Amino acid sequence: MPNGLWLILFMVLVGAVIGGFTNFIAIRMLFRPYKTFYIGKWQLPFTPGLIPKRQNELAAQIGKLVVGHLVTPESIQKKLSEDKFKHDMETWFSGKIRSFLEKGMTLEQLLEQIHIENPSGKINDYIDKKLENKYTEMKGEIWRKTIQDILPNDLKENIHSKIPDAADRILQKTIEYFSSSEGKDKVRTMIEDFFKDRGRLWNMIQMFIGNDSLAEKAQPEIIKFLNNPGTKSMLVNVIESEWNKIQNNPLGEMLNKLEDEEMLIYIKRFVKNTVQLEKFFKNDISEILSPLKDKLEEKFVPRILESAGIYIAQRSGEIIERFQVEAIIREQIESFSLPRLEELVISIAKKELVMITYLGALLGGAIGLIQGIIVLLTS
């Protein structure tokens, strides 16, 4: 082989090695060395490497890049409005709800997981205190009022209209009673009680009429009196008169013998037996929500996700600002160790960095080829 060709090949090889090695060193110098080196007080140039030296600035610029151009309110709104994203989120959320309900967890266990111990007892105590306060408050207000003040006008008119019917029922029941054998015995007893202290008069009546005959004569008269329209009218007037008196009496006077403590015990027991909080909190959440299970998946999940999406889309800028995304990214990058940061960048751009090294070797080889040709031409 001619010497000229060997010279060209040698210069191409040397150029390629120099070009490739130079690019390899340049890439490494982006990260290495990790710290500054000194000879005496004199700082060696290119120490530390570019990225270690500019890590804080790099972190700040990446934070601005992400917030300003990548994770922006517009990009978030666009993502939230995608039909596929909505469908995927609904599927995921529905699956989470089903998985949660299948655990068989009770409402009490759920509350205990968020550090709310004995929820039924606490709610019962709260209800008891509210009932005591409300009872005291209502007693102070209502005890001074009359029934007429409390009852609605429609109800008072309705009660008043029922008085004739009530009087009629009372008379009918009374007639039925006095028409029975028990009623007859009662009449006989009443007659005996009336005349027993009158001595001779009672003996004379028994002599002429007899005890049973007197009762038999009095019973039809009593029934006749009860059937008389005037009796019903009189009873209606009596009931109306008493009802008017009751309406105008303060409740405090009517219920003055009522013990507050006994009344509160009764009210609390009634509310507790009605609500049954202990039993409610022992139920499985799936059992509590079973009537709403279909609605949860068909309506609740889409609506809550839609509402959440609208809320996030409208306030995405504020959310990014409040979460200080830029500061978080900057702090995270600043906290990276330099070997980890180097590994991260190289793992992302490994192929490109290798190609840059090969490109340096290719350019160096081309320069060596040109130099060899020039040397041959000029020698």
UniProtKB/TrEMBL annotation:
UniProt keyword annotations, A-Z: Membrane, Transmembrane, Transmembrane helix
Parts of the chain that traverse the membrane: 6-31, 353-377
Pfam family membership, one: DUF445
Location in or out of the cell: Cell membrane
Top-rank taxon: Bacteria
Keyword Lipoprotein: no
PANTHER family linked: UPF0754 MEMBRANE PROTEIN YHEB
Family: Belongs to the UPF0754 family.
Protein's name in the database: Uncharacterized membrane protein YheB (UPF0754 family)
Source species of the chain: Lederbergia wuyishanensis
Lineage, top ranks: Bacteria, Bacillati, Bacillota, Bacilli, Bacillales
